[in-house]
C-alpha cells in the first residue's frame, strides 16, 4: 500500500490500524488553499536570499520553493498554501524573509 498517495481512505486505514496520523501532502483535493483568513505573509528580499533551501525544508506546509533567477536560486512562497506561521523568517540565516501583516 502506498501511504503518501494522497488517498484519504488509505490514510484513514493506516491511521486506524497504527494509531499514527498519515500526512496526505499538499493536494488541493485534500486541503483547500488558505484563503483570506491569513493575517501575516512572507516577503522575500531576493538581494539577501542565497538560495540555501533552509526555509524550504522548514516550511510545514511545503509552500516555499526555490526558483531559478539570473542571480541564482531564490525562495518564493505560494501564498495560497502559506499559513503565515513565521517559521521561514526565523530560520533564514541571511534575514531575507520578513513577515508582513495585511493592511
What does this structure look like?
The chain has three helices and four strands, in the order H-E-H-E-E-H-E. The protein has helices at 8-18, 54-58, 87-91; strands at residues 40-44, 64-69, 72-77, 97-101. The longest helix has 11 residues, at 8-18. The termini are far apart. It has 103 residues and is an alpha+beta fold. It is globular, with a radius of gyration of 16 Å. The protein has a two-stranded antiparallel ribbon. It folds into two domains: 1-32, no CATH class; 33-103, Alpha-Beta Plaits.
Quick description:
With 103 residues, the chain is α+β, with helices and mostly antiparallel strands. The protein is built from three helices and four strands.
Strand coverage percent: 15-25%
Amino-to-carboxy terminus distance: 47 Å
State the low-pLDDT regions, or none.
Answer: 1-7, 20-27
* Biggest sheet architecture: 2 strands, antiparallel
In the CATH hierarchy, the architecture of the largest domain is: 2-Layer Sandwich
* Helix content estimate: 10-25%
* Average of the residue pLDDT scores: 76
Helical stretch tally: 3
Over the alpha carbons, how many angstroms does the gyration radius reach? 16 Å
Supply the helix-strand structural class. Answer: alpha+beta
Q: What is the CATH first-level class name of the largest domain?
A: Alpha Beta
The total of beta strands comes to: 4
Global morphology: globular
Amino acid at each position: 500500500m502506498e501511504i503518501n498517495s494522497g488517498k484519504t481512505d488509505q490514510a484513514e486505514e493506516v491511521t486506524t490500524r497504527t494509531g499514527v496520523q498519515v500526512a496526505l501532502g499538499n493536494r488541493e483535493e485534500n486541503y483547500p488553499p488558505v484563503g483570506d483568513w491569513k493575517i501575516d505573509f512572507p516577503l522575500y528580499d531576493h538581494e539577501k536570499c542565497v538560495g540555501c533551501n533552509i526555509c524550504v525544508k522548514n516550511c510545514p506546509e511545503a509552500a516555499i520553493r526555490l526558483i531559478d533567477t539570473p542571480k541564482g536560486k531564490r525562495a518564493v512562497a505560494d501564498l495560497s498554501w502559506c499559513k503565515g506561521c513565521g517559521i521561514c523568517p526565523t530560520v533564514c540565516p541571511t534575514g531575507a524573509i520578513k513577515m508582513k501583516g495585511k493592511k
